[in-house]
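Why show two proteins at once? Because comparison is the fastest way to build intuition. When a single record is shown, students tend to memorize it. When two are placed side by side, the eye starts asking what differs. So, the first record is below.
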Amino acid sequence: MFEFFFPSLLAKGFPFLSSAPWGAEALEKRVYKRAVRTVGDEAHRRSVCLSTKLYLPLYPTSNIIIINIIISNNISNCNNTLTIVSLSWVASNHHVLAMSELPLDGKCSSTSLSTQHTPSSTMTDNRIGSFGTVPTAIFNKAHELRRRCEGRPCSFSRYEFPAWLDKSREAVADLLNADPDNIVLVANGSTASNTIMRNFVWNEDGLDEIIQVSIIFAPLGKMTGYVGELSQGLVRTRQVQLNYPLEDDEVVELFRQGIQASREAGRRPRLGIFDTISSTPAIRLPFERLVALCREEGVMSFVDGAHAAGHMKIDLAALDPDFFVTCCHKWLFIPRGCAALYVAARNQWMVRSTLPLSHGFIPTADIEQGKVDGKLAQALASGKTPFVYNFEFVAPMDNFGYLCIPESIRWRQEVCGGEKAIQTYCVNLARAAGALMASILGTKVLDNKSQSVSACCMTNVLLPLKLDAGNGDETPLPEGWYAVRSKPGVQFRVSDWIMRKMATEYETLMPVFFFQGSWWARGSAQIYLELDDFEWGGRMLKDLCERVGDGEYLL
């Protein structure tokens, strides 16, 4: 069974409009092509049903479009209700039909998914990995909880919210195979990282070092520099330079060398920081082996798993890092922002303060004197740890997304076929999408021989732009490549110009960034996208690169 979902007809899907500037004729061809590809022949096109409603085109004409169609081999289950909509009306309202299939072990799952759209948005977004998106069912759940709170804000916040929060912690702990007592929820990955770094206890002799990879998320990299200032020089940072392509063995060895170099310099490597999947570029790191290396070397490990929950299988019980952070709003379909912070029980004594500090803080004097206030005593009596209690109520904020985690995980299982199906589809789509866009651009994807780098739901595609030093020594460019004159700030200027044009002219967005002397674009695969979306994206990038070559970014 395959499903095509149209914007306002079904409650499944995502509340943003997947639109593109194709025009009515191209739109109809795309929709009809998918119907033919899926159904196969005219006889089957007329034997489609959806429990109580049936939507299908009578003929592939220029003004009739499928609204919603479910393909079934069981004609007896079909009813006789027909709904026909003018394609011109659809085009004028910027609606586009989309279909995605979830293959399991090379076959198409009986579960399929497309987007539900809202009139307020016109984006075909291929960068969902940045900020995520939310299915209508989960969006409505958060709104329901918000309305419930507004009806009785004090009692909900004091007595209902903690119970809902416990269920969400347990759900995400189960997803990550972690002890719920080691998991708390915070606003976002940066809040989680700041919480760890600001609470970390450094040695007074000033010899501590943080060992971090060069492709670390930029704000986290700035944070490690800031803690050096904040600690008044008690800790400094040593960077492990990763120049790709690299195999996993090489990454692990380079990190080992970074630890050794720290010790040879008379320093003390205290904390290793690395990603599960980095941001720009999107690279799947051998984080499992890096955690094991840190443990072997007596270095604490901090894993930035911003792109982990809902993206890849994580087993924290087996991994056993010291600290682990993962965003729930990027890939798990949770209303932003929401992140899970894991702190191994052995390290929870360090994390004394939330950001901002709130009711759960226990002053050192109280600890020394054995004082326990009433709220903490009640929490401990209920079985909660001081760590969990500390993060239970930080400050009033819009954190209703926290409470949607169980609903989202259940929705992903029931509607999308579960985590394995989602991950299989998205990884395969990302790899195919990267290859297709690179073919259109005449370039390549960022990968290594073993393809471990690309074992994720994102892809990095080289753009056909060459930084020209302007000294006359540049070799002739291949056909379809364009020179960009080198000048201060041009790397960011070109990236920003391309992204702004994507948003304003093409109603889409992919991160464009400068890495290792070249410009790259990052695409994010999702269950509501398919290869056609990336074909269009590749042609868009080709057009924008040509315009960069013409100097439009200078205007």
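Second record. Ask yourself what differs from the first in the token line.
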Amino acid sequence: MPLHRSRYAVNCVILAAISSGVWTGPSRADEASYWTDHDEDVVLRFVQDPGAEAAEAPAPPVTEPQPAPRTRFVRLQRNTVRSRFRLASVPNMFGDTFPSAGQVFAGLAPTAGADIGLAGGARRMKIAENNKALPMDRMIFMYNRFYTALAGDDDVATPGGVQRFAVDRYTLGLEKTFADGLWSIDVRMPFTSDYAFTSPSLAVSGGNIGNLNVSLKRLLYETDDAAIVAGLGIDLPTGSDVRGSAIGFPMVVHNDAVLLMPYLGLLVSPDDLTFGHAFVQLDVPANGNRIDVPPLVSGVYNDQSLLYLDASVGRWLYRDAEADYLRGLAALLELHYTTTLQDTDVVGGALPRPIFGESANRRDILNFTLGLHAEVAQTDFRVGAVFPLREKPNRVFSSELQVQINRHF
């Protein structure tokens, strides 16, 4: 007999026995034996004893969420969740610098000399000024007071006749991230106080508008406790020219130079309390500044290229991320080194005609910065002081006061 007819006959017999009450079904052992000994395609299953306890339906399996594919960007996003709080909350480096644009000398017995305060003394702003090696979203305000930063002397051959001027610099800025936080662009516009020096043979005055500084920052590497960035700063000649007179002839030093400032930066935070910064940056002029003292002098003065090395260490003195107001207080110690990379340019003829150049020729400047950083909600309030560690000519100011405010968004 064919197999399917045999199975059909068996099923009919079983149904007849159940309906007549003669047989109530197999035991659990018989049922297990039956399903072991017979093919899986049998249509009719045994009917359980009405008194038997119904078996519980198995719970559906729990499906675990599958992780997203590993890519460089996913890794950075994961690190952002895990470590960005520590790195992002690290206080910025304070900075130190005040740029020199050289000096002008004119006259003969006596010979007068004065600093050239191009862009009001607000140019060549390096990346270490109120910054760190991490792209950020923030609004920036900075106030710097440089004591005895500019000077003029109506007789350089006679001691004691130097007039010294402090420079007050106010800077507004904005830094904004893009491309998933891997990049940021930082734009800063400084303004300064007046500078004017007058003597019988030389008069010099500068304006109040500084140079617009634009910096691009790229995150190259990030772990739980470190980040490395690279970028380029561009100092654009939006600031004021220097005007005056030399031995009776009108004088103009034009603010023309575009300065290219590539850099590398490092941020480390080995634990929740300590942190450190480091920057290395070149400052290279792409062109010079035109000088006009008709009919005596006409030429182009080229700024010296500079190398900046900046390092900072700090420690949190107080931390409470859940506080309504004061969430952190930190102290920072910094060293800033600036050196010239070539000899000074010189424009002009022999005295008494005006001569333009850097009187010190080469400089090796080393400054020490001490700062206090307070984090209040989304705003940082910072106060710092800068002290030169070397004597003239390797110091360009006597001391500096800094006030910085960053509003994060």
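One difference worth noting in the second protein: Residues 3-19 form the longest helix (17 residues).
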